[in-house]
Amino acid sequence: MNITVISVGKLKEKYLKSAIDEYAKRLTRYCKLNIVELPDEQTPDNASEKEELIIKDREGDRILNYIKDNMYVITLDLKGKMLSSEELSKFMDQCAVRGDSNLCFVIGGSLGLSDKVLKRGNYSLCFSKMTFPHQLFRVMLLEQIYRGFRISNGEPYHK
Asked: Signal sequence: where (predicted)?
């Protein structure tokens, strides 16, 4: 399976980079992982709704440049479906069985994802109704993907 994670925003914290590197290393047993880090647009304080839409559209256009036609796109969105770790594991298995072996997870910037990206998505996933920094969320996503593979393979990890 090929997994691409497209994320808006630069990762600056060493401890988060270290965690991502660790999960990327662990995932090499299960998939080919590609992480695409895209620059975020600067959002002015008190940005208008129109300015926020323009920012999301610019980020969205950059995201869409990295999405290939053969990718099954999973957008991370507060309006998406919430799954348990077991359900995410089963979901990834079902994707592979039906031939969707190029999964692309998309994490938006601080304003979320543009409508164009959401429309391109094949599935919308929500981890929580809480808001997380996108830098931290990248680690959480990789951990859940890793956990999903471990569950699928009946390996000890999930409790």
From this structure: none
Whether residue 159 is contained in a domain is answered as no
- The CA distance from 82 to 124, in Å, is 9
- What pTM value is reported for the model? 0.94
Which residues span the domain enclosing 34? 2-152
Question: 97-116 pLDDT, tens per residue?
Answer: 999 999 999 999 989 999 99
Residue 132 marked as a ligand binder: yes
Q: Are strands 72-82 and 123-126 parallel, antiparallel or unpaired?
A: parallel
Residue 157 domain flag: no
CATH number of the domain enclosing 49? 3.40.1280.10
- Tell me if 108 is assigned to a ligand binding site: yes
- Known binding residue 130? Answer is yes
* Residue 127 assigned ligand-binding role: yes
Question: What b/e readout covers 121-142, taking b as 16+ CB neighbours within 10 angstroms?
Answer: bebbbebeeeeeebbebbbbbb
3-state secondary structure of 121: coil
Q: Is residue 158 part of a domain?
A: no
